[in-house]
Request: fold
Amino acid sequence: MIISVENMTKKFRGSDGLTVHALDHVNLQIQQGEFVSLIGPSGCGKSTLLRVIADLIEPTEGRVLVNGKPAPQARKDRDYGFVFQSATLYDWRTVLQNVELPLEIMGFPRTMRQARAREMLRLVELGDFEGKYPYQLSGGMQQRVSIARALAFEPKILLMDEPFGALDEMTRERMNNELLNIWAKLGVTCIFVTHSIPEAVYLSTRVVVMSPRPGRIAEVIDVPLQQPRGTDTRDHDDYFHIQSRVRSALREGSGEAADSRRLREGIGG
Amino acid sequence: MPAQKTSQTTWTLITIASILVAVLLLWEGLKSFSRASEYALALPWGGTLDLSNFNNQQLPHLGDIFGAFLEPAQRNGPPLYVILFRASLFTLSEAVAGFVLGSLLGFVLAVIFTHSSLLQRGLLPYVIASQTIPILAIAPMVVVWMRQLDLTALAVPVIAAYLTFFPVTIYTLRGLTSVSPLQLELMQSYAATRLQILVKLRIPNALPQMFTALKISATASVVGAIIGELPSGIQDGLGGAILNFNQYYVQSPPRLWATIVAAALVGMLFFGAVVLAERLIVRWQVKA
Reply:
C-alpha cells in the first residue's frame, strides 16, 4: 500500500462563516505503480483530496498514510512530486534552472543538478529548450517543463491537479501519451485529478468517481484496458463502455446533489 | 521588423527634439515680451500677469545660464563648471551613501513585515508617519544627534536615507507578498524552509517592484543630500553652492540657475544608473 486515506473528513469555514463539508469520511487505498484518476464535478473535493495527500492541507479528521508514513513526514522526505493546474514556472529562471529548482532546495551539488535536469528535459522531449525562459514556450511546453521538474528528484509518487486542463485537445492527447510513457518507464504511482471522462479512462488503471456536497467517493471503477495504451485503445469497445459507466456514476452522484438543491430552492419536491 | 524598430527610434528622437525646441521657444518667447514692460496678460481667472516679470533678473536667457558655466564664479577662481562638477561629485557621493543606507533599511523592514503581520501592524504606522514629517524639520535634529554620536560624516547620508527607505519598504513589501498561492504550494511540496522561500521565490518575484522603488529613491536621495547639507553647514556640495549663489543672486542670477541645472543632471545620472542596473538584472519578461 503506497497511499492510504482512512476515514478522512475535511471541513472548511466558508467566507459566509458557515462550515463547508469539503470531504466526508473518505476511504481510498492505492497500490504501488497504479495510475488513479480522481474525477467529479466542481466542488466534489477532488483537488482537496489531492492536497490532503500532499500535506498541503491538513485533514479535520482521519488518517492519511503515504509510503507507510503520516503525510507530513512524507512531504518532509520529498516522497512525491506535485504538478499544478498551471505550470507555475518561475519567470526569472530558464527552463533548465526551473527543473533544477527542487534539486537546489534539496541541496544537490551543481553538476549533479544539471545532469539530472537535462536528463528529465530529454524525457519530456525539451532537451533543446534548456536556455529559454518560460515566456518563450507554449502552454503545453511549459506544462512539460513542470512535469520534468516534478520528476527531477525521482519521487516514487506523482500527484497531478488537472495538469492538462488548459491545453487544446490535440496537445492534450499528445501529453497523455507522453505521461503514460513516463509512467511506464519510471514505474511511478500517479494520482491524477481531471474533469475529462475520456482522459481519466484512457490514462488510468482505476477511476475514482466523486460527488459533491459533501465531497464523497461515489464509485471506484477498474479500467482493465490493455497496456501499453495507444491509438488502438481509443478505438476499443471497452474504452467506450467504461466511459459510459463513469458517466452514469457521475450522473448518479451529482443527481442527489441536484435534488437537494431543488429542495433548498423550493422548486418541485 | 528591424525597419519598424528603426522608424520607432526615429520617431522617439523627433519627439524628444520637438519637446526640447518647444521648451526653448516658450522660455525665450516669454522673455521677448519683457523688453516692453507695458505688456500684461489678462488671466482667465481674473487679474493680469505682468510680462515684465520675465526680465533677466527673474528668468535669465538660456544662453546666459549656459554661459555662466564657463565664467569664473569668483575673481581669478576656476570656471563655474569646475566648481559645480566638484560640488556635484560631493553631493552624489552623499546621495549614494544615503541611497544604500535607505535601501538596505527599506529592504530589511519589508522582509520583517513579510514574515510577521504583528510587527507589520505595529510598526508600519510609524513608518508612514515618518514620511508626513517635513524633512526640513528633521534634518537639523539629525545633524545634532550625529555630532553627539561622533558620526558627523554620516549626518547627510542619514537625512538622504530618511527620504529613500520609504518607497523601498512599500514596494518591496508588495513584491515579497504578491507571490501566487500555487508557487507557495510548490515550495511547500518541496518542504522548503522560510529562508529558501525568501531567497528563491519572494525576492526574485519582488525585483521588478524593487527597481520601481529604487528609481524613485535615486532621485529622492539627491534631494535629501542637498537639503541635508544646509543645516550641516557643509560648503563642498550642491546645497552649499545653492545657498551661496542664492546670496549673490542679485549680482548674477545665471549662477543659481546653472546650479539648479547641475542638481537636475546629478539626479538624472543616478536615475539612469538604476535603470541600467535593472536592464542587466531583470532579464525575464514580467507577467501582467
The longest strand of chain B covers residues 40-42. The CA atoms of residues 113 and 120 of chain B lie 5 Å apart. The beta strands of chain B are 40-42, 48-50.
